[in-house]
Design a protein that fits this description.
single chain, about 230 residues, alpha+beta, five-stranded mixed beta sheet, 6 helices, 7 strands
Length: about 230
């Protein structure tokens, strides 16, 4: 199965929107209230407005469970529940992480030039998902002096429900890190970066989750082929 849309889908940049109507098709008051709560919480946490918000949706799989690892095609679709990160760049060489849920304590780590970001897989800490996305993104864009960030996370994808909440988190971390450091890659490269990033926390996935989160289109499932190259057919 092929599609003339595939090259444009894969090589275009992840889109930016100034209005929620570009993201959601229904329940706009609900989504608007959620975004406003995220902004308000960011201001109360950091004392300043966020510069932007990144979003990545979760996914459900229709056909092809656990076969993307072997390079076989799959047929998933993105869902409305998603992961959000409100972000503000700083001149400090620190990455500050907070979460709207009180279950997850605030975290912070250094991004000084020459500092190696360490991820302890023995500790199942929520911040590891951001760390792996940050580390993978910095490597992918070749950034030797990453900027500091203040970040506030909010997720509506249920955890441990098979809806790829962790991959949505990592995709958001990759996008936030790239944007703050002034380098945006194509959708295909963002997907590759997110897949590689998750290996830092011991996840050797095949790419279905990240491809769905980054490349899906509204009101459409997506047929994903991995061999010989990544191809997308809505």
């Amino acid at each position: 199965m092929t599609s003339a849309l595939e090259p444009a889908l894969a090589t275009s940049l992840v889109p930016s929107f100034s209005k929620l109507t570009g993201i959601y098709n229904e329940n706009l008051p609900h989504h608007s209230a959620r975004f406003q709560l995220l902004v308000d919480k960011f201001v109360s946490t950091y004392g300043a407005q966020p510069s932007f918000i990144v979003r990545a949706p979760g996914r459900v799989n229709i056909i092809g469970e656990h076969i993307d690892y072997c390079g076989f095609p799959v047929f998933p679709m993105a869902i409305v529940p998603d992961f959000l990160i409100a972000v503000r760049a700083t001149d400090k060489h620190r990455i500050q992480l907070a979460n709207t849920s009180s279950k997850y304590a605030a975290r912070e780590f250094s991004c000084m030039p020459g500092t190696r970001v360490t991820i302890d897989n023995a500790e199942h800490d929520w911040s590891n998902y951001f760390k792996c996305g940050f580390k993978g993104a910095i490597e992918a864009i070749g950034c030797s002096e990453p900027r500091g960030m203040q970040c506030l996370m909010d997720g509506s994808v249920p955890s441990s429900a098979g809806l790829s909440s962790s991959s949505a988190f990592v995709c958001c971390a990759v996008l936030a890190t790239m944007k703050v450091n002034g380098k945006l890659l194509s959708k295909r490269d963002v997907v590759a970066t997110a897949v590689a990033s998750e290996r830092y926390i011991g996840t050797n996935g095949g790419g279905m989750d990240q491809t769905t989160s980054i490349m899906s289109q509204s009101q459409s499932a997506v047929f994903i082929e991995f061999d010989p190259v990544l191809q997308i057919t809505p």
